[in-house]
Amino acid sequence: MSYLLDTNIISNIVKKNEIVKAKFWELKFREEKFFISVISYYEVKRGLLYASATRQISNFNGFCQEVTVLFYCFTCCYYCAGGINCSAQPRLRSIRPCL
């Protein structure tokens, strides 16, 4: 089976919620496939950068090595993620794309 993880699940894993983390690793051990959307990727990344949460950024980067990030076309990713984050919190500047 495959799973598309939402932002709240990703956040709980990055924050080391033991229940969510244990379930993730249980399923990972069974060789289940995990995906996150580019929108969730940028939502989490923007929140962590805004909070200057360096430990959690490191956790998130490690987590992204365990899942497949579903990037669409580069232009769509960049403008969509930038628009979501900048419109939600106007004082933020856009982040550089990871591609």
Characterize the structure shown.
Helices cover 61% and strands 12% of the residues. It has helices at residues 7-14, 18-29, 38-51, 54-64, 74-88; strands at 2-5, 33-37, 68-70. Helix 1 packs across helix 2, helix 3 packs antiparallel against helix 4 (54-64) and helix 3 crosses helix 5. The longest helix is centred in the C-terminal third of the chain and has 15 residues, at 74-88. The protein is globular. The N and C termini lie far apart (28 Å).
Largest sheet properties = 3 strands, parallel
Query: What structural category do the secondary elements indicate?
Result: alpha/beta
Strand arrangement in the largest pleated sheet:
1-2-3
Global geometry:
globular
Low-pLDDT runs: none
Q: How large is the radius of gyration?
A: 14 Å
The topology string of helices and strands comes to: EHHEHHEH
Question: Tally the helices: what do you get?
Answer: 5
End-to-end CA span? 28 Å
Task: Report the average pLDDT across residues.
Answer: 81
Helix content bin: 55-70%
**How big a fraction of the residues is strand?**
5-15%
DSSP strand count: 3
